[in-house]
Amino acid sequence: MTQKKPSPAPRGAGGATRKKESQASAQAAELSELRPGQSVELLKELHILTREGRLNQDSRRKLKQVYHLFNFIEPLLTELSAGGGGPTLADHGAGKSYLGFILYDLYFKALGHGHIYGVETRAELVEKSRLLAQRLGFGRMSFLNLSVAESSAADELPAQIDVVTALHACDTATDDAIAFGLQQKARAMVLVPCCQAEMAACLRQGKALQLARTPLAELWRHPLHTRELGSQVTNVLRCLYLEASGYQVTVTELVGWEHSMKNELIIARYTGQKKRSAAERLRAILVEFGLENALGLRFGLAVAADVTEAAAVG
Fold first, then answer.
1. What pLDDT score was predicted for residue 201?
2. Non-local CB neighbours of 271 within 8 Å, separated by 6+ positions
């Protein structure tokens, strides 16, 4: 009896198998970049992972940025929860709440207590975040359709917030987040400022007078330099203001410059030691740049009160 020869494999079947194995291997390598226990479903919902569970270059950049920020925030949360309490965190200018959701997934979910509040002005993003939190069972997340300034008087927020974050809060929204943190007696603030247009506008208004008064005005004579210097001076004033208000301040990079030009990360931890020298230098910078009238109310009056208090204590 003649034995039948096995049917040959279809042409290209081996190549297709190898391709599938290669794709599976690549996907496994990409997923290995995620933190242990992280929700793949959440990352798909945030469009950090594709529907097939893959990472593209843009989503890898977003994930790297949020992970880097998480590395700074996690020790603060751990310190605050050491006594058994649940830390509260307000994320201003939350957008799609990448940061809030990943913080909850990586930290708050396992902790079992604590609460995250996302503050965002775009109603459609707030509603999407609410629905996603419900779908994932993230019960200790709330989303408020408010501006940063409005949140200071919102009944939906508790009387005290432990950590305030503001990731790329544009222009004066970062200052509003700082004011919110001071009002809420925040133990820590983590800020990534963005688009400091107000300072540049102030510098432009008095440019001719300043050029006649001091050679330092050459630093902002050209429009590009005005914008860059405005950004730098704004953040220096913010750091001095925080130090004058009793915070220890660290300034570092958020991620590598190849990922974002809006890259300055300000971390402030409350110590209660208000620096009189910081308040004095803040006022001196406002005077030197001719900004005491434009920005004195935001920084000067509050700092003046701090200096008076510090002097009284001293």
1. 82
2. 246, 247, 248
Distances (CA, A) of 162 to 11, 181, 265: 64, 9, 18
Q: Tell the residue number behind the tokens 């009387």, with chain if given.
A: 159
CATH numbers and ranges of domains, the chain: 38-195 (3.40.50.150), 197-246+274-314 (no CATH)
Q: Which two tokens stand for residue 161?
A: 């917030």
Distance CA 87, CA 290 (A): 41
Who contacts 209 (Cβ-Cβ below 8 Å, separation ≥6)?
290
Are 101 and 46 within 8 A, CB to CB?
yes
**Do residues 119 and 185 touch, judged by C-beta distance below 8 A?**
no
The CA distance from 79 to 244, in Å, is 23
Three-class secondary structure of residue 267 per DSSP: strand
Q: Residue 213: left if φ>0, alpha if ψ -120 to 50, beta else—which one?
A: alpha
As a whole number of angstroms, the distance between CA 289 and CA 216 comes to 9
Phi, psi dihedral angles at 188 (to 5 degrees): -155, 150
- Phi/psi region, residue 279 (left: phi>0; alpha: psi -120 to 50; beta: rest), is alpha
Closest by CA to 231, choosing from 269, 266, 206, 259, is 266
Q: Which residues contact 309 (CB under 8 A, 6 or more apart)?
A: 274
Weakest-pLDDT range from 114-128, 198-212, 290-304: 290-304
- Name 4's Cβ contacts closer than 8 Å, sequence gap at least 6: none
Please say if the pLDDT value at position 64 is more than 50: yes
- The Cα 197–Cα 42 span in angstroms is 35
